[in-house]
Amino acid sequence: MQLIDGKKVAGDIKLEIKAEVEKIKANGGKAPHLAAVLIGHDGGSETYVAYKIKDCEAVGFKSSLILYEDDVSEDQLLAKIHELNNDDDLDGFIVQLPLPEHIAEQKIIEAINPKKDVDGFHAANVGRMVIGLPTFVSATPFGIMELMKRYRIETKGKNCVVVGRSQIVGRPLSILLSQKGIDATVTVAHSRTKDIKELCAHADILVAALGSPEFVTKDMVKEGAVVIDVGTTRVPSDETKSGFRLKGDVLFDEVAPKCSFITPVPGGVGPMTRVSLLHNTLLAAKKEIYS
Amino acid sequence: MQLIDGKKVAGDIKLEIKAEVEKIKANGGKAPHLAAVLIGHDGGSETYVAYKIKDCEAVGFKSSLILYEDDVSEDQLLAKIHELNNDDDLDGFIVQLPLPEHIAEQKIIEAINPKKDVDGFHAANVGRMVIGLPTFVSATPFGIMELMKRYRIETKGKNCVVVGRSQIVGRPLSILLSQKGIDATVTVAHSRTKDIKELCAHADILVAALGSPEFVTKDMVKEGAVVIDVGTTRVPSDETKSGFRLKGDVLFDEVAPKCSFITPVPGGVGPMTRVSLLHNTLLAAKKEIYS
């Protein structure tokens, strides 16, 4: 069994991006510029955005932070997005989700210029992924595809089961895994799926992305399978300073011995999602998606 | 075994659309207006466009036909698309594919305003389908979903195998079938899939969309399965005036007796694709997708 070390791979990618930014600057180019819009004071959101800004600094990007109170109106936010869309110095930006209830999330996402949508949530970018055009792939699917590539995991003709059909993980990942060149035979399982245990037990590659702690047990995993655990449920813990710890969707201790490869939680898929934003911002700066 | 009569359902839908157009007109509204852009003299394309114009007449739509010779430049075509995008009298338009080799198909498709993209090929509309937003669904997936709905075919929790991952059939159909509310467990099979016969033999719903005549034989079909045949390969024939006939991807005579439902070729999925354009144009006129 080989552990997939997402923390190490994420670190490698950050160094690669940093080197590329240095080259761009050495050639007289400008640093990629990412902006993040943060609304209100949700603790999780504040932490995530702080990490994103810190990541930018670490690789030599320029970053901007735009803060609003919880009572910002939808129109104010749309006006700001319009301004960011038209800011030539800015390569990409994100609006940190979730939004306050009085703001229509989808309307905000669709107002972002797809060329600057480095989160990859805009319908035009999702559609480009389906069609097979260059696009900004969203964080978790990007992270998983990159881990599989760097660990040279064979996908062609493999039976792959993706448990979960969310718009940000299961659905896009299932599409990417069955595209030409990757060529897995992909089944999307979900809450309505019958005989889900048996289905999983036939998978060469099993992706658990349902958000149900320790859902995948050893009887659901084929000997030698690749297991990708996307779950990150917070559970109370006496052993950590924060008072909680993360639990994956896979019962790691009993499943790991059966696997050829497995991602741990934490330290597997999680660290990869942060570098995807850097990756996409660099692509935006280089105008590699929309030329 | 029940035969799925696409010709009858398509006729029903045309009557429904006609009745709705009459109501719109009676209330002082204007008739939905579809334009078709046809380039060159490909026999198939000329025939398809002629049918589309005829269909518009049959349901009371206004239609416009825009003709170009094969040597039209990409820039000329883009200028026309820009004009059509901004023509307030026009609800939707299509550019008949395939295009001459010197014109980049994807560039043309992406130049169409998604709000008028009644073929449903624009990345923004494909993405909206993935996200689950209202959208223009392209012809064949629309036709199949509509047939299944009108024949009250149960999809929840059913194992569905879609053979073929094309951008216009297999891929979008597989997404639609596994969306919430439809809830099938969908596997996308393709040329790299191993043990494809066994996979098909476990399907409650089998969709053959690979374009390989009579690929699906009776050993690949479960007793009581629903079989949807998307294949339409032209094969030479002495028995028809045209000198050819259409062959499906399913060996109908031996497969049909095992099925609960099956679509014939011709007369199954085929006739449905034509009404999808009318359906989408009506949606565009009513501004039901992008409000």
Overview of the molecule:
The structure is a homodimer of 291-residue chains. Chain A is of the alpha/beta class and 291 residues long. Chain A has ten helices and eleven strands. A six-stranded parallel sheet of chain A has the order 1-11-8-7-5-6. In chain A, strands 3-2-4 form a three-stranded parallel sheet. In chain A, a hairpin with a 7-residue loop joins β9 (233-236) and β10 (244-247). In chain A, α2 packs across α10 and α6 crosses α10. The longest helix of chain A is centred in the first third of the chain and has 21 residues, at 6-26. Chain A is globular and about 55 Å long. The mean pLDDT of chain A is 97. At the A-B interface, α5, α7 and β6 of A face α5, α7 and β6 of B. β6 (185-189) of chain A pairs antiparallel with β6 of chain B, so a sheet runs across the interface.
Name a few traits of the molecule.
6-stranded parallel sheet, homodimer, 291 residues, Rossmann fold, 3-stranded parallel sheet, 2 domains, 39% helix, globular
| Total of domains of chain A | 2
CA radius of gyration of chain A is 19 Å
What integer is the average pLDDT of chain A? Answer: 97
- Assembly state (oligomeric): homodimer
- Count of helical stretches of chain A: 10
Which structural category do the helix and sheet elements of chain A fall into?
alpha/beta
- How many individual β-strands of chain A? 11
Low-confidence stretches of chain A: none
